Amino acid sequence: MEFGERLRELRKEKRLTSKQFGEKFKLAESTISGYETGARKPDIELIKAFAKFFDVTIDYLLGESSDRKGNIVGSAFYDYDNITEEEKDYLDLQLEIFRKMKKKQ
């Protein structure tokens, strides 16, 4: 499943119109439509925000995984008890980006 299809599916699961969803991110309805049809591509920061909003991994949102939550490595690599939520999100994003880059090599 492609990113646009996945985005539309997740939006509909939350029972949001394109307009309602766009308003949550200060985006026009036409922008959301462009993402869902594949005519436009969001930047990585917006992809991250969408994934967080839907509580799914970036891989799932991009259609590269069928596992919504992914394989959370968690405390095996990070001291999750002593870092902030923002730091956790940043580390998770960096790990996902690194894996995507390695996959393309």
UniProtKB/TrEMBL annotation:
Annotated transmembrane regions: none
Keywords, sorted A to Z: DNA-binding
Domain annotation HTH cro/C1-type: ranges: 7-61
InterPro entries given in the database record: Cro/C1-type_HTH, Lambda_DNA-bd_dom_sf
Listed GO MF terms: DNA binding
Gene3D superfamilies on file: lambda repressor-like DNA-binding domains
Keyword Cell inner membrane: no
Database matches in Pfam families: HTH_3
Coiled coil: none
Protein name: Helix-turn-helix transcriptional regulator
Gene source species: Bacillus infantis
